[in-house]
C-alpha cells in the first residue's frame, strides 16, 4: 500500500504543480476550467494509450522511440509555454495601459488557453503513464491485496492533489498586479527545466552525444530523489548533476523567452492583431 | 605469422568489446546481475531484457536514466561516460526487490 501511495503521490504532484501554475496564470479567465479539465482528461487518455503501447513505442527508431517521444512532447510543452508568455507580455502590457486595472491583464490570457491546455495534457500524460504501468503491473501479478493498493493509490492521489492545491492557493495570495510577473517567471523556469529534461532524453536515446560531461554535482546538498529535490526539479528544472548540453538548453530557453517577451511586446504597436495567426 | 594475425584480430576486436551492450535480465522483479561493472569514462549500453510479464522502469537519479521496458520485451539503457564510482539504480515499480548498482572503474 505504501509503495502505491508513494508512487502515485510523486507522479501526481509532478503533474499537479504544473496544473497549479497554469490555473494561477489563468486566474479570472473565463472558461479556463473547461480547458484545464480537457487537458487533464486528454492527458489521462493519452497516459493509458502510452502505457498500453509502451512496448511498441519503445521499439520505434531503433529502440529509442520512448526517448524520442518524451523529448518531443516536452519540447511541444516548451513551445506552448513560450507562446503563452510572449503573448501575455505583449497583450498584458496593452491591456494594462488601456484598462488601467492590473487584474485585467491576466484575463487577456484567454487566447493561449488552448496552448496551456496542451501543457497540462502533456504533464498528465507523462506522469500518468507511469502510474498506469505501475498500478497495472501490481494488479496483473496479483498477490498483494487489491483493496490495499486502491487505498494507497487513492491516498497518494489525494495527497498529491492537496500539495498542488496548496501551490495554487499560495500563488493566488499574491496581489493580482504581481501575480502576472510571478507566473511569467514560473512559466519561464518551468519551460527551461522541460527543455533541459528533453535534452537528457535525446542524450539517453543516442540522438545527442556532444557536451554530455557532468558540470557539477550537488547531490550532497539537495538530492534530486528527495522530496524537495523533486519539487524543485519539476518547478524550476533542478538537476543535481547537469551536463553541458542541458545547461545550454536551460539558459537558452530563459534568454530566448526574455528576448521574445521584450521584443514582441515592444515592437508590436497593435499586438492584438499581431497575434492573430496563432489561434 | 598466425600469432601476429591473432594479435591483430584481438586488438581490432577490442574496441568492439568495449562498446558491446552489457546484458542484464530482469526476472521476478530482480536484476541479474544486480552489480554491473562498466569501464569508467566510457559510454556504455545496458541491454535490459524484462522476463516478467509486467512493465518496469529502470530508474536512477545518479545515472540520470528513466527507461520503461514493457513486460516480456527488452530495451537499451544508455549510460553516459561515468566517473569512477558506485551508482545505484532500481526498478521503480518494484523497488523493494528490483535494485542494483553500476560500478564504474
β-sheet strand percentage of chain B: over 45%
Low-pLDDT regions of chain B: 8-18
Elements of chain A, N to C (H/E): HHHHHHHHHHH
CATH architecture classification name of chain B: Sandwich
First-to-last CA distance of chain B: 35 Å
Q: How would you sum up the major sheet of chain B?
A: 5 strands, mixed
Give the proportion of residues in helices of chain A: over 70%
Unreliable residue stretches of chain A: 270-279
**Strand tally of chain B:** 9
SSE order of chain B: HEEEEEEEEE
Largest sheet of chain A: none
What is the count of structural domains of chain A?
Answer: 1
* Structural Rg of chain B: 16 Å
What is the quaternary state of this protein?
Answer: heterodimer
Chain pair forming the biggest interface: A-B, 37 and 28 residues
Q: CATH class of chain B, please?
A: Mainly Beta
Helix-and-strand structural type of chain A: mainly alpha
User: What is the domain tally of chain B?
Assistant: 1
Work out the number of β strands of chain A: 0
Integer-rounded radius of gyration of chain A: 20 Å
